[in-house]
Amino acid sequence: MALKRRTKVNPSFSMSSMTDIVFLLLVFFLVTSTLVNPNALKLLLPKSTNQISSKPVVSLSIKHYISTNTFSYHINGKNTPVPAGEIESILQSQLKDDDDPVVSLHVDRTVPMEQVVNIMNIAKRNQYRIILATAPE
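RE: above sequence
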């Protein structure tokens, strides 16, 4: 006695709900990816070949003395340190006549990021471009 089914199984699968989910995920990731870094400082990082597109007008060095946990700031490689409160005024006086002011920032490895960000904030306030100098590999 052979029993037959009255209803046949439909082997097709509806993809409409899957495409809706993919579309919503795509929109979600597009919106969130634009919000990741809206206020980041724009830095000109040198390439590994040590070639940069613009010449720095002023060089600023930050040296960290680990034993006393103090920092000294030097402008244009001079041995005399500059007080931290006077950096902005000195940079303004040296870069006032330049159309495209560029500051080259040389930082010891042990300098905390807070000190670097303070200099970057000075550059952002005055609309200077920064080149973060690195040692060759």
